[in-house]
Specification:
218 residues; alpha/beta; Ybab, Chain: A; three-stranded antiparallel beta sheet; 7 helices; globular; PRTase_dom
Length: 218
């Protein structure tokens, strides 16, 4: 099994080629899912010379098996639950509420840290491109999509460097355009397709957002 990308910046440059028709457009806004989606989205926004911001989503992990998503929450009080997982693991409502409350605190912390005093971008009538470093369960991206639909964008695009073929099919049904640069099979995990998949830090996110704030003024 060979990695498809050197790191997230390399993945972003490759993804930008798939999105070239959106370059130099003032009606385009790229939204990154932090933290891993930010370095990818930064390269895309830089290449395309379009505006970029973050959209914060938190996965609701199954207690004791946190990697498995029973749902996700996003800014704007949106909650998406995976009823199949909840039923098969017999997760009671009070447990979901506790996990959601904890994740909401982290979501609000990140919102303060990453955004500071910058206002949230206006998305109405815009072409919004949601970017992450890849899709495994798709729960966080699904929550982001549902949250963004309430913002009435003119067009909603999801773009990722790598995802399973099934994930690409699923999102094709719920957004206006779905772009998967690579769809390896079997998929394993997002990190399997990167040589360097080290964790993106809060500091890196803040630094990249600060730099991206000058786009598309070049």
């Amino acid at each position: 099994m060979t990695a498809h990308f050197k790191d997230r910046a390399d993945a972003g440059k490759r993804l930008a080629k798939e999105l070239s028709k959106y370059s130099n457009r003032p009606d385009v806004l790229i939204l990154a899912l932090p933290r891993g989606g930010v370095p990818v989205a930064f390269e895309v926004a830089k290449e395309l010379k379009v505006k970029m911001d973050v959209f914060i989503v938190r996965k609701l992990g199954v207690p004791g098996n946190e990697e498995l998503a029973m749902g996700a929450i996003a800014s704007e009080d949106v909650r998406v639950l995976n009823e199949n997982i909840i039923k098969s693991y017999k997760i009671p409502d009070r447990v979901i509420a506790t996990v959601a409350a904890n994740e909401l605190r982290e979501l609000e912390r990140r919102e303060r840290k990453y955004r500071g005093s910058r206002p949230k971008p206006d998305m109405e009538g815009m072409t919004v491109i949601l970017i992450d470093d890849g899709l495994a369960t798709g729960a966080t991206m699904h929550a982001a999509v549902e949250a963004l639909k309430t913002k009435r964008p003119a067009k909603l695009v999801v773009a990722v460097p790598t995802a399973s073929p099934d994930m690409c099919k699923f999102f094709k049904k719920i957004v206006d355009e779905m772009i998967c640069a690579t769809t390896p099979e079997p998929f394993y995990a997002v990190g399997a397709w990167y040589e360097d998949f080290s964790q993106t830090t809060d500091e890196e996110v803040c630094e990249l957002l600060k730099k991206a704030h000058s786009f598309p003024a070049e």
